[in-house]
Each structure stands twice: as C-alpha cells, then as structure tokens.
Write a structure and sequence with these properties.
Elements (H helix, E strand, L loop, with lengths): L3 E6 L5 E2 L14 E5 L1 H7 L2 H5 L29 E3 L1 H7 L3 E6 L10 H14 L4 E5 L3 H13 L2 E7 L4 H8 L4 E5 L3 H14 L3 E2 L5 H6 L2 H10 L7 E5 L4 H15 L9 E7 L4 H8 L25 H11 L3 E4 L1 H15 L5 H15 L8 E6 L24 H11 L1
Parallel strand pairs: 5-13, 6-7, 6-9, 7-8, 10-11, 10-13, 11-12
Antiparallel strand pairs: 1-2, 1-3, 4-5
This protein binds pyridoxal-5'-phosphate and zinc ion (ZN).
Pyridoxal-5'-phosphate binds next to α10.
Length: 411
C-alpha cells in the first residue's frame, strides 16, 4: 500500500493527485500532503526509526517521497544539547538547544526542507530548481542543486547581507537580486513559476518541501528518549516550521510513538517583522501583513507569511504563545547563547532566545518545565549583525613587555 495518497486542500478538503501544485483550484486554500497513516502504522516503530540512517531520512516513512531519497543524505539529526550554563543564566531547570547551526551542508534548518523538495523535484522529472529566499533557502537550494546536477535559479531581495549573497554565489547558481522586499520577490516568483517549467521549492513544490520541517520535531522527541517536551520555542518567517512542528508531534502521538502529548509551541519573531505574533497577542482572526519589514533578522523578514494563520492555530491549540524581540535584544541574546553554550547562532537564533527569556519572565513558560529552543541557523552567515556590538581586539607590538603592560591595564 502506498504511504502517500496525494494532496489535499487544507480548507475544503478536496483531493488531488501527487503533482507540483500548491493551491486549491476551487477555494485557493493551500494544499498539503495526504498520507495513508494506516499503511504507515504497519511499518513504523521506534525500533525501525532507530535502525535508520543518521540523517533526517530516518523518518522517511513520514516524508512524501515514493522512491529512495536522493538528496540531503547528510542533512539533519542535529544535536540536542542540554544547556546547563544557559539554564543558570535564565533561571530554569531543564533547557535544551536543538542545534541546527551544525550537521547540515549549509548550516541552517533549510537543508531539511530542501532535502525533501529536491528529492521530490527529481521524482517529478524537473531539470531546474528555483526559490524565493531571504538567504538560507538560497544557500541550501544552490548547494544541493550543485550536488544533484540540477540547473538552479535563485531569487533574493537585492539588499540581503553581502555574506549571505556570496554564500549562494559560490555554488554557481544564477542569482537574481530583486529591488524590493521578500514579498515582492515571492510575488514575482509565483508569476515566473506560471511561465517557466521549474521546480520552485517554496512555491509549486511547497506542500512536499514543507514536510521536511517535521523532522526537526521528530528528532527532538527521539533525542529526549521518545518523550515530547513541555515547550518548544521556534522562530517563524512564513510560519511553516511552527505549523509542521505541530503536525509532527500529532503524527508521532497518533502512531503511538509517544504516549503523552502536552507540548506548548511558542513562536518567536522580530519586532520589526512579527505579524504572526501580533495576531497571537491581539487574539486576532487573521494575520495582517507588515508592509516594510525592518529588522536585523532578515532570514525571518517575511511580511506576508503564507502559513501565518496556520501557525497561529497551531500555537493556540497547543496552549502556547509568542513574543517579539527588538534588534538590541536579538544581539544581546546571540551573545548570551555564544558566551554560555558556545553556540554561534544567526540573528534568528537571537530572536528565539530573546523571546524565550520573555516568556519565562511572563510565566508562559514554567521554570520547572522541560524546554527546547530551536536554533535554526549559523551565526557565521550574518556576522555583520555584530559589527561594533562586540569588544574590539587589543593591538600590541610583538613584545612580551607590551603584553605585560596590556595585562596591567586589564587587571
Ligand atoms: C526559514 C527559516 C526559519 C523558519 O521559516 P518558516 O518560513 O517559518 O518555516 C527559521 N529560521 C531560519 C534561520 C530560517 O532560515
Ligand atoms: Zn480547497
């Protein structure tokens, strides 16, 4: 029996074949993968997963690929680190870092979604892959397209951090910088996808791509000894990751891989672009787009999040909440994470930790609870964010006396 039945509209429930399609033709709702959980139940177990590869493909039974996975074979199964120093700094009892800054080819959580998207694009026989990106997705699609010998077009806002642009260009894709926001880039890409027969990983392949995010939550549960934590705090850009964390936990619970499910899911966004969190705070029914995002957390700067309302729904049903972080708080949190746990996160990680701190202080997260923070990208990608925000090196002559003099001043 096939484990993937096809696609299904999240709004009206209408079913579709497996095709590179992301919007319902009848109600314009988003499509998602429709699994045959009865068939999956027969083959999946804790044991079968533990015997799998040490990559995100150990969860292949719950990913929408028909054949053997072909991409991202080294992605995922990142460390879950007990953060003792950070626990002391925050005044909590049990906190873990889900560290997606390492063990991925391009050092961000986007290698999860791209692993699934490119494996699927090949099953659909595309020869060109593409994406609209705020940076990390561009890196991952570029690198994995290079490995897979696929042609690659990358679309980004022209004002992205210089280092982020170079970290795509090195893999030799065609990079197009758009004079506009990410939402302008995304709108243009939707038009291009209607004309060019390409696999846009986050547009026409989106339902398949998004499933890759689930692996982050699967790993957390397995690494905690098949238990779900009390809290997961994750950053949101388009809202897909948070939505899929919710879906992953539900799937594991439904399939009997975890006994209890009481996890509160919380969203972290930047103050300068936090439309999903604003909806949570105002208890609203829809997500009002932010026209001009202004934040150093550019990888999260999506003003009109495609999965915003589903992320809100996931958080509400879990009993979680959300918070905004200012640029200053983001930098402070990046420094705190590095100085306590030796994890150099990009700005998005700063957002997550800063918001976690606030949610602990406001009582939304209990100090005795088991907490997991999702750190989704490596700081070496956004060093500019710390320009002038860390101490300067002291410059001396190459003489012992010069060093002694310096020490006498320091002490
Ligand atoms: C893309 C991304 C996210 C989450 O994005 P969603 O669009 O909400 O799924 C989180 N952190 C980083 C660093 C990212 O690049
Ligand atoms: Zn529909």
């Amino acid at each position: 029996m096939e484990k993937v039945l096809g696609l299904k509209c999240r709004e009206c429930g209408r079913k579709y074949e497996k095709e590179p399609l992301h919007v319902c033709e009848f109600c314009f709702g988003p499509l998602e993968v429709d699994y045959n959980y009865e068939a999956i139940q027969k083959s999946i177990s804790r044991r079968s997963i533990e015997r799998g590869p040490t990559s995100l493909w150990r969860y292949a039974d719950l990913l929408p690929i028909d054949g053997e996975p072909t991409d991202g074979l080294n992605s995922g199964f990142t460390p879950l680190v007990r953060a003792k120093n950070l626990e002391d700094a925050l005044g909590v009892k049990e906190l873990y870092i889900k560290d997606d800054t390492v063990c991925h080819p391009t050092l961000s959580f986007k290698d999860r979604v791209v692993a699934v998207a490119l494996s699927k694009a090949k099953e659909f026989n595309f020869d060109t892959v593409s994406c609209a990106s705020t940076g990390n997705l561009a890196h991952s699609v570029s690198a994995q397209a290079a490995i897979a010998n696929l042609k690659c077009f990358i679309f980004i806002p022209a004002d992205l951090e210089e280092s982020k642009i170079i970290a795509s260009l090195v893999y030799a894709p065609k990079v197009v910088g758009i004079l506009g926001t990410y939402d302008d880039v995304n709108r243009l890409c939707s038009e291009i996808a209607g004309v060019y027969p390409w696999a846009f990983v986050n547009i026409n392949i989106r339902p398949f791509y998004a499933e890759g995010s689930k692996t982050l939550a699967f790993e957390i549960v397995e690494q905690l000894g098949w238990e779900a934590p009390d809290h997961i705090i994750a950053p949101a850009a388009g809202g897909s990751l948070v939505t899929k964390i919710g879906k992953a936990l539900k799937e594991f619970h439904m399939l009997g891989l975890i006994d209890k499910l009481n996890t509160k899911i919380h969203i972290a966004q930047a103050e300068g672009c936090g439309p999903i969190v604003t909806t949570l705070k105002e208890n609203g029914d829809f997500v009002k787009p932010v026209r001009k995002p202004t934040t150093i957390a550019k990888s999260l700067a999506i003003g009109n999040p495609a999965d915003g309302i589903y992320a809100v729904d996931t958080v509400r049903k879990s009993g979680g909440f959300g918070g905004h972080a200012t640029d200053e708080e983001i930098v402070e949190a990046m420094k705190l994470l590095a100085a306590t746990e030796g994890v150099f996160a990009e700005t998005a990680g700063g957002v997550t930790l800063a918001v976690t701190k606030k949610l602990i202080e406001s009582g939304h997260i209990g100090r005795e609870d088991r907490i997991v923070i999702s750190i989704t990208g490596n700081g070496l990608k956004t060093v500019e964010a710390l320009d002038g925000k860390v101490e300067e090196p002291r410059i001396i002559q190459p003489q012992l006396n010069a060093f002694k003099k310096l020490m006498s001043k320091v002490e």
